[in-house]
Amino acid sequence: DVVMTQSPLSLPVTLGQPASISCRSSQSLVHSDGNTYLNWFQQRPGQSPRRLIYRVSNRDAGVPDRFSGSGSGTDFTLEISRVEAEDIGVYYCLQGTHWPFTFGPGTKVDFK
Amino acid sequence: QVQLVESGGGLVKPGGSLRLSCAASGFTFSDRFMSWIRQAPGKGLEWVAYTSDSGSMIKYADSVRGRFTMSRDNAKNSLYLQMNSLRNEDTAIYYCARDDGSTVDHWGQGTLVTVSS
User: Is there a contact between B102 and A49 if contact means CB atoms under 8 Å apart?
Assistant: First the structure.
């Protein structure tokens, strides 16, 4: 199975400041169809996960443009340009290239 | 709008069975791949099973293969998960999720399954 790792696992943030989460996979996430199925989800306390970014860098409808995704191959990053109060929660990366699809362990974003 | 509503969770003894259901609305269910994904209390996310739009292709995680059976009824816009030989470690919130060709894009609210004697 593809192992997904995230760092940091805990990210204390300050309102209005940038934040960054790293996600790495144990093998390349480039699919035979040429796409890279690396996705990012946000899970607020008590809620279901919500997709933010699909295929590395595509923002979902309704997701603020302060969220951006980048990376290639095995190394990926989710960035928040200016953290807002509603951004608190756990962030997961997910690889959908190789079955079984696997999530990272999650990064808990909370205020300092 | 897209709605996925899970039901069927509850408390069951080890070795017991449960059948989860997911009622879909707001989109053409028969056009979409669907998944079951679970989350143990306070833990991360684990993909359980994944089916094609017709139901002809179904994949399972190693942890549930041989014990869980996923199915769908496109005429009823419904997804199912039959869970047999349940273990303590199957305790989790089970989410039904829709795929958009990239990955899951909508999730239900989840249904809690508790396996305990």
Answer: no
